[in-house]
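Supplementary notes (optional reading)

For those who missed the lab, this is the record we used. Protein: O-methyltransferase. Length: 202 residues.
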Amino acid sequence: MQFAEAYASEDVVLQTARSLAIELGLDSVSPASGSVLRLLAAAGSAKAVVEIGTGTGVSGVWLLRGMRADGVLTTIDVENEHQRIARRIFVEAGFAPSRTRIITGRALDVLPRLADGAYDLVFVDADVTEFGACADAALRLLRPGGVLLVNGAMANGRISDPAARDVDTLTVRETLRAVRESEEWIPAVVPSGAGLLAAVKR
């Protein structure tokens, strides 16, 4: 695990975004998880990506660096102040403002307004209580072959502890189970950072 994190090197832009997130008390994807986001965006030649949870732009930069040069990242967050920082980070990373569509609002209010089957990748880094609803929305938003990624699949290390019965852990378990048992997903759990649930839409 430590090697995987060290292997994914971050430049000064990502380091800045990460330190700003820490100042605001936000959790960002780990470097290893970020490298998985970039890898999957690149593997799918992603042109249209939805990110739920902008933060200070850490995961957004990783995604944009994997996407096609003409790709657009639609990123949603309730905190306008965080998005103001992220907007600056995206520019500092060398991305034109036209490469991002930054929407302030609750994901569950915004997602219904996005087009069916129009996206290559959906990344969820939101409140655990919204995991299930976001996964359901992703099924509608993604094209066949599109990828869903959910950050936090390890439930802060409690996922395999049968004694852990708190609401967040139960919610993560339920989301993992629902995706695994669905005929519509091909899933895997990637043990990077906080854990990524990855699933390809059939």
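If you only remember one thing from this example: Strands lie at 48-52, 72-77, 100-104, 119-124, 142-151, 185-190, 196-201.
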